[in-house]
Design a protein that fits this description.
alpha/beta, Rossmann fold, four-stranded parallel β-sheet, 17 helices, 13 strands, globular
Length: about 450
């Protein structure tokens, strides 16, 4: 069966279309962002049970390339790409687990965490980068003049771009804000052979530079304003529903920075609905750090106006973005999904991440922002205790060990409510027994 996809302008008064193998990031007619559109009539020729059966058969199989959580849904992502040009590390298919203990603390019976950071480079960015780099490889095979792929990043995008370009044999270029990402995030593109440029600015400053240098068609842009990225990331919503045996949760909470992931999540869920696999949509919550919250501020004004801001330094460094490129797409998604935007202070996100860790998680600070938003919405009774809630964890906690060490050493600018410092003792059995007795006594009193 023949399926097609193409770029289309998001401006309803324009709707200009372009081929996916064109080097283009904004509409040439009106300057708006683009999105990938699919021939839904062709896709609808296979019924909903047929798609479910196909996706189930492919899930985590060893059949190339369909064992990938993204390429197992190839017809819904990039149907026309040749399998030989797909660059995949079998990303996706990540764990969705029942957060029973954390849920009980909040009075929730049905809380789940989608571990998108349990992927090759340690963040959800792999899901979009496999699509973008695969399309670049296809374009190069067709004669495109691309010599390198570039991105501005707060850490995770650069890691994903570096690893997929390394796998493809394509040069990657990453522009990072100097001193504003973790050591673990910095070393990833270095190790994978990227040309790493550390700029004395913030992410928004890096983004301005990368948009200028990618006007040269030999350098291809990999940031989320390139809607190829969104095509991979949209499979998160599809995968969540599939993991619930094709039932839709009531709420999905996702951290928001540059906001491409928000529209991606919505895009996948809308395809499920439009092709008859689901009957209703969940509500979406976007969680922002208070120090980088332009979407939250616009939400308070009912999205009647948007003002870019100078993002302040936040522990949630990957979402320290004051002028999100995908703002318009995110607003459209929130309106379609009866969405909410919430924010979290530095103390709230840190305590929420640490409390989650106490129940068996290992959270990045951005997941802490989402968990803090969840806590607020439950306290305000916006989320009903009986509803099914999914929190999207965007990156692996091992990328942010400095954040965790500072928290537990009580070196933050605020008290660490759940700090757990190591106890220094002499190497004597009596001293260890005494420390254990005191610690276990305190633990028993805390449970009472």
């Amino acid at each position: 069966m023949s399926y097609r996809s193409w770029f289309q302008c998001i401006n309803r008064n324009c709707r200009a279309t372009y081929r996916l193998n064109e080097i283009i990031y904004r509409c040439r007619s009106c300057g708006s962002l683009l999105e990938v559109q699919h021939d839904m009539n062709a896709l609808a020729r296979r019924d909903a049970p047929g798609w479910m059966k196909l996706f189930e058969e492919r899930m985590r199989s060893n059949r190339w390339p369909y064992g990938s959580g993204i390429w197992g849904k190839k017809e819904w992502v990039l149907p026309e790409i040749h399998d030989d040009n797909i660059v995949s590390l079998f990303e996706g298919g990540t764990n969705l687990f029942w957060a029973e203990r954390f849920g009980k603390m909040l009075g929730l019976k049905d809380l789940w965490i989608k571990l998108c950071g349990n992927t090759h480079s340690g963040s959800f960015k792999d899901l979009g980068m496999t699509v973008l780099v695969s399309q670049v490889k296809q374009m190069i095979s067709e004669g495109a003049p691309i010599k390198a792929v570039a991105c501005a990043s707060t850490g995770d995008t650069s890691a994903a771009l570096a690893v997929y370009c390394a796998a493809a044999g394509i040069q990657s270029i990453v522009l990072l804000p100097k001193g504003k990402i973790s050591t673990a995030q910095l070393i990833q593109p270095i190790a994978n052979g990227s040309l790493v440029l550390s700029l004395d600015t913030d992410f928004d400053g890096c983004m301005k530079v990368v948009q200028e240098i990618t006007k040269d068609e030999t350098i291809y842009l990999a940031n989320s304003m390139n809607s190829l990225r969104v095509e991979g990331q949209k499979t998160v919503g599809i995968e969540i529903v599939q993991q619930f045996d094709w039932e839709v949760p009531d709420w999905i909470i996702i951290p928001g920075g540059n906001l491409g992931n928000v529209s991606a999540l919505g895009g996948g869920l809308l395809m499920l609905r439009d092709l008859g696999l689901i009957k209703r949509l969940p509500r979406i919550v976007v969680a922002q750090a208070e120090r980088a919250n332009p979407l939250y501020r616009a939400y308070l004004r009912n999205f009647e106006s948007f003002e870019a801001m100078q993002a302040q330094k936040t522990l949630a460094s990957a979402i320290q973005i004051g002028n999100p490129v995908s703002y318009e797409k995110a607003v459209r998604t929130l309106r379609e999904f009866n969405g909410i935007v919430e924010q979290a202070t530095e103390e709230e996100l840190s305590d929420a991440a640490a409390l989650g860790d106490r129940t068996g998680m290992f959270n990045c600070p951005h997941t802490g922002v989402a968990l803090a938003a969840l806590i607020k919405l439950v306290k305000r009774q916006v989320i009903d205790p009986a509803q099914r809630v999914v929190v999207i964890s965007t990156a692996h906690g091992l990328k942010f060990t400095e954040f965790k060490v500072r928290y537990h050493e009580q070196a933050m600018e605020f008290p660490s409510q759940y700090a757990n410092k190591p106890i220094d003792l002499p190497p004597r059995v009596e001293a260890v027994k005494e420390a254990l007795e005191q610690a276990l006594r305190r633990e028993a009193q805390a449970k009472v």
